[in-house]
């Protein structure tokens, strides 16, 4: 059985945490880890609790479930530039659940450049029991508040391969408390998902929106679409899969910041 890899918290989780501060590089979303807390320069401890639901469990351009969506719950603690988190997910239409535990350290190389390094442990429960360890890193550049390119890298010890995503986000604060962020992502697989095929994996685009209900409570959502590329198409052809390989999905999250 091919294991399901990576977190999907995806696109949303802690973008909702203070991401109204669109000029902070840390508010970028990421499909592999959930540490999107802005840098805490006062070295105070913050607690974030997030509850969310996605209409599909999509990661690496693939729907990991036979059908239905997935509910997520996350607790993240930040002290200074260090984030520690635990995420649990449970499918709503089949017997599948997972846990993710990780930590990440973020540092600023310059006023416009931010780097993050981290590790996470993944535990999967379903028809088969699986686990994985991942090392990840990300680089974001912000010379303009409305155009933020970023690059993320994830290495799987179980697969012995890595996954790369190059993204561009464009945050726009439309009104007090409301931020809308269209984005595009190009992804590459190098023995991370499939051992036989390497190279371009999928192209993804969508829009994310966040509304600050109060200083400590935020409601966010996303609508995303993926276009299957070589790695996904070759994998599907080898498995005799003639179904549509593109994915359209959406999600909603409610986030508390303490």
From TrEMBL:
<feature type="signal peptide">
    <location>
        <begin position="1"/>
        <end position="22"/>
    </location>
</feature>
<keyword id="KW-0732">Signal</keyword>
<protein>
    <submittedName>
        <fullName>Uncharacterized protein</fullName>
    </submittedName>
</protein>
